[in-house]
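Repro case for the chain-ordering regression, as requested:
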Amino acid sequence: MSGTCGLIALDAGATGCRVAGPSAYWRPVKTAEPDDSDEALMLAYRDGDAGAFDVLYARHRGGTYRYLLRQCRNAGLAEEMFQDVWMNLIRARAAYTVQARFTTYLYRIAHNRLMDHFRRHDSDAVSLDDDNAVPMDEPVAPRSADPAVSAESRAQAAQLLVLLNKLPDEQREAFVLQQEGGMSVEEIAEATGVNRETAKSRLRYALAKLREGMQPWR
Amino acid sequence: MALNPGTDMEHDPQLAADYKAAAAELPPLALDDRIRAAARREVGAGPRRKSRWLAWQVPLSLAAVVVLSVTLVLMMRDEGVDRIEPDLPPPAEAVAPQKAVEAAPRQGMAEAPRPSVVPQAAPPAFTGALQASPAPAAADAVPLPMAKVQPPVEPPAPAAAAALREESIASERNVAPAQESARPLLRSAPGPAAADTAAEPAARKAAPAAAMSAPVPERLLWQDLVNEAAEKWVQRIVEWRRAGRAADADALTAEFRRRFPDHPLPDEAAAR
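-- result from build under test --
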């Protein structure tokens, strides 16, 4: 992708350039690049660069989806909430400013969406009659399992998912945020709306239980 | 609880590797397409721009307010002159039109100038004359079309009084045809008693404008006769006919006939 595409009024047809807005006549627009930070991409999208959103979405679609799936344990519901989260992000783009890491912002939206759902449904996210429901004690087989990965490794991963499902929601959430969002304790605390010590405690408990459960595989 | 080598309380690379191997779920491609399309649509819509009407709303409103304010001020200023001036105390010379009317016949009709349509031309020398005092008399007048307000004029020097009087008489003659045309209206006007009741609001409304500009109405000509007997009216008509004031005499005759329809009118008075 090219860098700066100059005044957008002269170069509106270029790839990644946004449609000319009122401020475009004096401000050059920078198009998104793959190595841009999440925040820069979101700012570019805010300013009208649709290509920036594509990069951003490609980076975070899996993590966001899995976070929602782990927490609600229902694929259909996870998809519905996943769409809501991204649509909220799209709608809020005009007001976006960099106040924290983008992942913190994104997972905060996802967390809030989950909380809305749990409040509405009294925390009963799993329906046993639902075909999409993921059984608590059965590992989810990876969809794109690498053939090279040994059967033992896959079994080990499945066991981890079983253990993860057994964790309390808050501890599981802390672990998944760390793994999917690459978030620190402080960022987990911010995304989930708790103080640092609480987030740290949740994460420690989660790690301890998982380690203990995975001990036979080590 | 045994920790893996190289781990701390909040990080475990082994667990992270295991999780990475296990976490392979992805959203359906159809959902991806829907979200990307929505993102592009949002950008394509661009920032919500104000419509032209909204952009011009404030300037147009301000312009309208300014124009209305200026118009109102101008209108109030124009109307304010009419409304304020009648409240001013009448000038001393203008006090006695009635007295003038009373005095005029006695002094001889030739010397008593008729009410003039040019009140500002009335000099102090004419204090006793009818033409100098339009304001109070006009209160009883039949409302005439709005007349232009004439600014007060400085009284001329006594030396110029004679010349001015000549000029005034000359102008009176020029105006006479207009007055003649207005007479039918005056003749059909109700009498004083009726005027006080029926025409009072209208007359009061018209008074300020008429007082400033209208000629002394003809009813003033016989105002002093209102309570007099028919003989007095006949006597006045005869006097005026002798004095050559045919138009006034005709008006007076018409009024006389209206008031005293059964009273005979001598030939001398009726003759034209």
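Ordering looks correct now. The CA atoms of residues 3 and 73 of chain B lie 90 Å apart.
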